[in-house]
Write a structure and sequence with these properties.
Alpha-Beta Plaits; eight-stranded mixed sheet; about 50% helix; rod-shaped
Length: about 290
């Protein structure tokens, strides 16, 4: 009995050991499987998180790009293209002297009395219609609208891009504006008229302001052009001697005579009547004629 019992005991021990070993392997396998599953879940979570972050970055980048485009569009709406690009590129100050520019001021005659007799909505609609018409003409002739003050309208040629024929373009614009304003009628049926003044010379142009950017023009040329308008007559275009010198070979002008100009003394001025059809301008492609 002894050897048999001993042998049975050894076998049982071996079985128990094997069971224990198998148990350890099973548990280890389970632990490893659980760890691998956890790692897999973590990897999937990390991948999902990465995708979410990438999507957020892409959305934010697209939003910033759209916002930048809107800002650039606004800059181009209120500033000349070249000036807007300077500001967009980081320039802190935009200012330049131009040696040969031509400035035009136009004022709607009797606008004050018209505004006093009509509701604000009618007045604003009228001004908007007229100025939009003028804006189209300014763009057509490649000129630069500087600003409007009430019913006054200011345009310059030769800024921000210098051009030797700015006076020709301004003269064509003035004639086109006079023709355009005649399409608008007062309550009594008579056409509105403009008083226009033109002067040529040097000027300084630049951007001022922080929250509200304004591209403006300064200098004696601006002041004299303004005087040409205020001292003019309804329905007529008054030009200075400097403007006359640039235009007389290509336009019909009549001498008005000598007038007293504040800050300048006596000045000889002229009326711009129309274009001389028998003369060819130096570069007609740069200032197309108004549509018939």
């Amino acid at each position: 009995m002894g050897p048999f019992v001993a042998k049975a005991s050894s076998t049982q021990q071996a079985v128990l050991f094997l069971q224990a070993f198998l148990g350890v392997i099973t548990i280890t396998s389970m632990v490893l499987s659980a760890a691998e599953s956890e790692r897999s879940r973590s990897a999937r979570s990390l991948a999902a998180l990465n995708r979410e972050l990438e999507q957020r970055v892409a959305r934010r980048t697209a939003q910033l790009a759209a916002q930048t485009d809107r800002i650039n569009d606004l800059l181009h709406n209120i500033l000349p293209a070249g000036v807007a690009e300077q500001l967009a590129s980081g320039s802190q100050t935009v200012a330049e002297t131009f040696n040969d520019v031509t400035v035009l001021f136009a004022d709607i005659v009797d606008f004050t009395s018209f505004a006093a007799q009509h509701p604000p909505t009618v007045v604003v609609q009228f001004l908007n219609d007229v100025f939009c018409t003028f804006d189209d003409l300014v763009e057509q002739y490649g000129l630069e609208k500087i600003k409007t003050i009430g019913d006054a309208y200011m345009v310059v040629g030769g800024v921000p891009k210098p051009r030797s024929n700015s006076a020709f373009a301004i003269a064509h614009l003035a004639l086109a504006m006079q023709q355009a304003i005649g399409q608008y009628r007062k309550p009594d049926g008579s056409p509105f008229r403009l008083r226009i003044g033109i002067h040529s010379g040097s000027a300084v142009a630049g951007v001022i302001g922080m929250k509200k950017l304004v591209y403006d023009l300064w200098g004696d040329t601006v002041n004299v052009a303004s005087r040409m308008e205020t001292l003019g007559q309804p329905g007529r275009i008054q030009v200075s001697q400097a403007a006359f010198d640039r235009l007389h070979s290509y336009f019909h002008l009549e001498q008005r005579g000598t007038i007293a100009v504040k800050g300048k003394g006596e000045m000889i001025t002229y009326w711009l009547i129309g274009e001389l059809s028998s003369h060819q301008e130096p570069d007609p492609d740069l200032h197309p004629h108004p549509p018939s």
